[in-house]
Specification:
The protein has 438 residues and is an alpha/beta fold. The protein has 3 domains: 92 residues, Rossmann fold (3-Layer(aba) Sandwich); 177 residues, 3-Layer(aba) Sandwich (UDP-N-acetylmuramoyl-L-alanine:D-glutamate ligase), CATH 3.40.1190; 140 residues, Protein-Tyrosine Phosphatase, Chain A (Alpha-Beta Complex), CATH 3.90.190.20. It is built from 17 helices and 17 strands. The chain is globular, with a radius of gyration of 23 Å.
């Protein structure tokens, strides 16, 4: 366990954690290790399985699962919100503890972290870039923790007691809205476009949350920023950090990451690692060995000359655009699900001549049809399997069937991973021979 974590740190403090998903449980564990009296809340009575309940109760954490009540918050000196839990919706309940400090798990964990932090945010490409930065640093001989919004929360890493030279964190706008002192050594903003407008009040609030990553950085820190946003960012007073702007380059010709967007991601990763003392040769070797992550432009192979590509992680219009741009062969596109915002009409000039057919599936059919009907050949099926089967039947050798839906998956699946896994299952069950699919 980290030297800064001991039972006397928060002894006598009463803390309430809202949300019993991964980060909420991690925060509750850390608070208990710090000696606080901890209450964990979740509106869902089934939020925790028996093993998790037993573990938390063994740590002395009080569990209250079901509708929140003012008395759940009474007397709290600290309220830790899980990502995606907006402060505004809890305003009436937080009135029961007017003096409580309201923060997120990322903020809490950062108080007890001693390693320099490289933090990555943006609308698209966060997970790939965060993971790539971790791999480059490891290749250069650093002991690295990679986590945050992906995999392991920072709180869990601290409790593991594992030392590291650098903590590389993916951070979301949900997390960044509730940080007040979090300060990375290197902060990376990959890109920015409409997303999560079902959560944020408007696009300005979304951008403000992203830029909160840089708010406490100093002249000794580095902000890595997209060149396409330079004019807008230079007009804002959002950080004291040194700034370096990046765009896609051919610096790393040997790589397994297709598309202009990934060239930009690689350049951002390099600039972040350079600030941590990595050489370009070390970065080049690590990039050459790096393979795409699952469900991110992941090639599943070919059937009857048709390439199947799983980009289920593409939950925004910009991510879909980048995926389509990655191919120089005809694309049959799978789209549909819980739409989070974005301009579907704006992609039409790019898609015409590239996208030969669109197979819509699941929810928000009307959103896509309103933007694309009469502009692109399209159809709708209620399920992904029916849409894939129909696209495959219509396809020609040399085509790409691309799952890049520009939506969240919660209409039909538990998450983008389940959607991608189902796509792979469906592909595996399709006939191999051209004649058999007609």
């Amino acid at each position: 366990m980290q030297a800064l974590i001991h039972k006397s740190q928060l002894a006598g403090h009463k803390a309430v954690v809202v949300g019993a998903a991964v980060s909420g449980v991690a925060a509750a564990r850390l608070l208990a290790a710090l000696g606080a009296s901890v209450r964990l809340l979740d509106r869902n009575p089934e939020a925790l399985d028996a093993e998790a309940r037993s573990m938390l109760e063994g740590l002395g954490v009080e569990l209250r699962l079901g509708p929140h009540k003012p008395e759940d918050f009474a007397g709290a000196q600290m309220v830790v919100l899980s990502p995606g839990v907006p402060v505004a919706k809890l305003a009436a309940l937080l009135a029961a503890c007017p003096d409580a400090q309201v923060l997120g798990e990322l903020e809490l964990a950062s108080w007890f972290n001693q390693a320099p932090i490289v933090a990555v945010t943006g609308t698209n490409g966060k997970t790939t870039t965060t993971t790539l930065i971790g791999e480059i640093l490891r290749h250069a001989g650093r002991k690295v923790f990679v986590g945050g919004n992906i995999g392991t929360p920072l709180s869990d890493h601290l409790l593991s007691g594992e030392p590291c030279d650098v903590a590389v964190l993916e951070v979301s706008s949900f997390q960044l809205q509730n940080v007040k002192s979090f300060r990375p050594k290197v902060g990376v903003l990959l890109n920015f476009s409409a997303n999560h407008l079902d959560f944020h009040a408007d696009i300005e609030e979304y951008l403000t949350a992203k830029l909160n990553l840089f708010a406490r950085m100093t002249e000794n820190d580095l902000a890595v920023l997209p060149l396409e946003m330079k004019d807008e960012l230079e007009a804002r007073t959002f950080t004291k950090a040194r700034r370096v702007y990046f765009t896609g380059t051919s610096r790393f010709p040997e790589n397994h990451l297709p598309g202009a967007h990934n060239r930009a991601n690689m350049e951002a990763a390099w600039l972040a690692c350079r600030a941590m003392g990595v050489t370009e040769e070390q970065a080049r070797e690590a990039v050459a060995a790096f393979k795409p992550l699952a469900h991110r432009l992941e090639s599943l192979g070919e059937k009857a000359g048709v390439l199947f590509v799983d980009d289920s992680k593409a939950t925004t219009v910009d991510a879909m655009r980048a995926a389509v741009q990655s191919f120089d062969r005809p694309v049959r596109l799978l789209a549909g699900g819980v739409f989070k915002g974005g301009d579907l009409e704006a992609v039409l000039p790019l898609f015409k001549g590239r996208v030969v057919e669109v197979g819509l599936f699941g929810a928000n059919r009307e959103v896509f049809e309103a933007a694309w009907s009469g502009q692109l050949p399209l159809f709708w099926e209620p399920t992904l399997e029916a849409a894939v089967t129909r696209l495959y039947r219509n396809s020609e050798p040399g085509d790409v069937i691309l799952l890049s839906p520009a939506t969240a998956s919660f209409d039909l699946y538990s998450g983008y991973k389940a959607r991608g896994e189902d796509f792979a299952r469906i592909m595996a069950g399709l006939p191999d021979e051209t004649e058999a699919r007609q």
